[in-house]
Amino acid sequence: MKMFAVFGNPIKHSKSPIIHQLFAQQTGVLQNYRKIYVPINNFYKKFFYFFKNGGIGANITIPFKKRAYKLCDILTKRAKYSGVVNTIKILNSKKILGDNTDGVGLLKDLQNLKFINTKSNILLIGAGGAAQGIIYPLIKFGCNITIINRTYQNTKKIIKFFKNIKNINSLKEEDLFSISNKFKYNLIINATSSSIKGNIPNIPSSIIKPDVFCYDLFYNFNNTPFLKWCIIHGAKRISDGIGMLIEQAAYSFYLWHGIMPNTKIIIKKYKKYN
Asked: Which of 96, 191, 227, 260 is most buried, with most CB under 10 Å away?
């Protein structure tokens, strides 16, 4: 049976094995998919051990997406343009193919939710691999993106990476507080790991309004801390990242098996587990 896995730290919360099990049942594909906890400084060792022992493909999650990018011999167009990798496939030639399905998965979920249009002004909170991996498809779709992050230096690195793109800019956290009453965002995306730790990003509550969509890449049985905070301050349309997780997983599954699962059915089935 073909072996696949998701690598991350933390990884206990991951629902990827459930989702890929549902994909396998739907499509009739036989696969063994599991989650692998990776100590922070042990990614390469764990990665190569898995593939030397029969692994064919993998998903990469927090905080290893930039490291995974550096491992790859071949990159898909969307991986190359994002600078991070969340999906890997070992080719018959033994070369490592890297893809990024996060951005396209997020865009599809946002479209399903009707949270986005081609002129949306997006506030993206976070400047790690999760944030960097979703920018390219949103920009290509036509959105304007402003990035903020606790460490401004990391924000500047992302801006430098996307240096030839006009509709992306950055703000210092303190500057967001000073302009929060003068500028409106249509969509606010939390791409930090704050919800995993039970924390809330440092943003002004005045930017949360009833007609502003609030989205957290993280997911939980209940609303994430960020989404709870958004509701308290007036948000009416919120979503966690479970739809994105399922959509991006479907693109990973397609890369490995050449079959695209029906994600709408999977989303309904998934909710029965919760």
From this structure: 191
